[in-house]
Amino acid sequence: MSEAQAPLHHRFHLNMGPQHPSTHGVLRVILEMDGEYVLNPQPVLGYGHRMQEKMAEARAWPGFYPNTARMDYAGALHYNHGYCALIERLAGIEVPPRAEYIRVITSELNRIASHLLWYGALLLDLGAFTPILYTFDDREQILDILEDITGSRLTYCYFRAGGVSRDIDDKFVERTRAFITRLRSRFPMLEKLVNGNVIFLKRVEGVGIIDKDMCQRYGATGPVARGAGVPYDVRRAEPYSVYPEFDFEIPVGENGDSLDRFLVRFKEMEQSLRIIEQALDRLPDGPVMAKVPKKLKLSPGDVSFAVEAARGELTYYLISDGTEVPYRMRIRVPSYSNLSVLPELCHGMLLSDLVAAMGSLDLVIPEIDR
Amino acid sequence: MMESLMPELIRMVVAAVLVVAFVFLNAMIMGYLERKLSAHIQRRPGLMEVGPHGILQLLIDGLKLIGKQLVIPEKSDHFLFRLAPVLSFAPVVLPFIVIPFSRKLVIRDLDVGLIFILAISSLNVLTILVAGWSSNNKYSLFGAVRSVAQNISYEIPMLLSLLAVVLMTGTFSLQGIVAAQGKIWFFLIQPIAFITYIIAGVAETNRAPFDLPEAESELTAGYHTEYSGMGFSLFMLAEYANMFIVCSIATTLFLGGWRGIPLPFGDYSGIIWFFLKVYGLMVFLVWIRWTYPRTRFDQLMNFCWKYLIPFALVNVLVTAVLVKVL
Amino acid sequence: MSKKGYFTELYVGGKSLLVGLGVTFKACLQPIVTVQYPREKLDITPNYRGHIELRRDPESGECPCIVCGMCARACPSGCITVEGEKKEGEKGKTLTVFALDFTRCSLCGTCVETCPKGAIDFSQDYNIAGFTREEFHYDLIRRLEERG
């Protein structure tokens, strides 16, 4: 259905959101429709804007720790990681190896938790109610493990510039290993229930095709880009922490449709499990916190740091004027770029396909609004 | 004159009261079964608070819904908006007249029983259209339009699959069809017709995976988006009653109706067997709903025209030939 | 449609649907995994980070706070108020006010980490609710005394 075929008087506007079951938060999409065909979806942002960047510029740098977790509540530890690593890069702090290993283990656990949440939510968008309960069952295990070590269930504030705030113990290692076994045994069940289901495959196959060119133009990263066949992963492209020491694969898709994005994330969970296993095997002893002066003035200059968050590349960029308070903080969040694909992606789609395509982008709205 | 009319009048009133009461009871039983089964499928306990294992929860929910205000959108068509839920109730009550619950328990065994049910239940779509249209809400209208297209196209495979049974028995009377299944139940002779009928039945009752008219993640709640309180609950009652009718037709035509291994209850054992079979089928529909994702609209239509109708047509043809030859 | 044949697709699709039904049927027979919250409660991990509390030194039984104000300065949201006064015959200041405005706290734990004497700790309270904002303005000294 092209615009030429749809006379103007046939078109109407449909407001999807800010309260709608499948916009996952306070995203509003104004859809210009012709019947059930979407001609022009326009996302409207800002319902959850909290001035996170400005807040970073209004207080001493350690005061921004809790804010990092509140941007992407589904993958908070990656946001912790990016910010702490940014400060470390600027101040030249050497992080003890044990702390780096703990960061990798907890980050990857968090990535799995985020992917499990998305897995259920996508299926909910497609009308299947049961898978989200199964994935939440597994996700609860991760939250329990992380709660035991970080002290909170969702908005972690665990990493510190120079290390982590609390050391892990044998119980953590044991529980994590048990979880790895458990999740591996659950994958076949999910594959049977969802991945092979003909209704599911029909709903996502060939829907919402994002090609490499589109990814470049919009800056889409993470599983969205990898689903389009771009093997871009910050953990490989611009290695940070101790990721180079681990053996893991970067799953990529072929067609760039919703199914490929789905499969990429599904395979990523297995790769994350592999990373955690290796890290647990090689976990070194030693301190978990470097010597960091209590009052650390940030040296003048600018610095940026990118990490691979659950949804794509997350970059912190900081300009310092030599005081404790950052002069300018800029955060490049993955969901924002991934969402900007929407108008081009969903032009001429059915409403049902729009829901499926939007679900496969894995949007977290507070992260976009910041 | 009066003497001959009176028993008939009493019969009518009693039947009407019983049927309406049963429609409410059925919604309560199904509401409970649906919530309990979905809970166990998702490994939750489900209703637990009101009464032992929550069996009184639906009663409380019903009271709550009756007590709630029916919010009427300002720019809706007030008359039609109020009328639609009531209208939705009529086509689901009437088919009970011809359903044979046991050898003796049937309100009226019409010669055209099957046609009567099909004719009445296809009215259901009209009420959905009225509800969607009068709400003056785009989501409601979407749901209504989807529902009309879906119900009309799925009526064809439904009719064709039933036709195969009618060809074999040579009667439209439901009691007659049950009587014809003395030796063997028809789902063994007509498996294709049975499967086609069940799939079409799921689509006719707007249940998942064909619940496009009320597709929650797309249309918020479809045609009943704007309904609250009793308006909403009448639609729910109608949906469950529709399920009951679809399942009881399947039972009557394919699963031997009230026939079964004789139980020590005399004529009542027929009723027990009938309800067991009907609720068994309904549990199956609930099970399907909580397992699958929703189909897309064009896929729904494709499935109907590419698979169901050709299969049902071939089935009718083969049946016709075999009936003639044998 | 183009990739697979008409009947193959029907067979593969139908089979996948039956397999799905099998998965949910199995789940239906397995035990329940949820917890009936107000009736049953899960144990909270001792590492849980609730709002802060003053703690006593296990040896002396006194709160080791020296009213340095490090926690109040470290708090990103400024939700801690610490005041003390100089008393005759005592070394250093004595704590008189330790107030926490929990409505603004984001549970980052920076205060606990900066405390040089280990005078504050996380509480285990997690199901806290109230009707007014004032209910979340905690007087930690009083809470410490109430705990005994």
Question: Can you walk through the features of this model?
Answer:
The complex is a heterotrimer of chains A (370), B (326) and C (148). Helix content of chain A is 48%, strand content 14%. Chain A is built from 15 helices and nine strands. Chain A has helices at 52-56, 65-69, 76-91, 97-125, 130-150, 170-195, 198-204, 212-218, 223-227, 234-237, 258-281, 334-340, 342-345, 351-361, 365-369; strands spanning 11-16, 28-34, 37-44, 159-160, 163-164, 301-309, 312-320, 328-332, 349-350. In chain A, a hairpin with a 2-residue loop joins strand 6 and strand 7. The radius of gyration of chain A is 21 Å and the shape is globular. The model of chain A has no long low-confidence stretch (mean pLDDT 86). Chain B is mainly alpha-helical. Chain B has one domain (76-325). In chain B, 69% of the residues lie in helices and 0% in strands. Chain B has 13 helices and no strands. The longest helix of chain B has 40 residues, at 2-41. Chain B is globular and about 65 Å long. In chain B, 46% of the residues are buried. Chain C is α+β, with helices and mostly antiparallel strands and 148 residues long. Chain C has a domain at 52-147: Alpha-Beta Plaits (2-Layer Sandwich), CATH 3.30.70. Classes of the chains: A alpha+beta (370), B mainly alpha (326), C alpha+beta (148). At the A-C interface, helix 2, helix 5 and helix 6 of A face helix 1 and helix 3 of C.
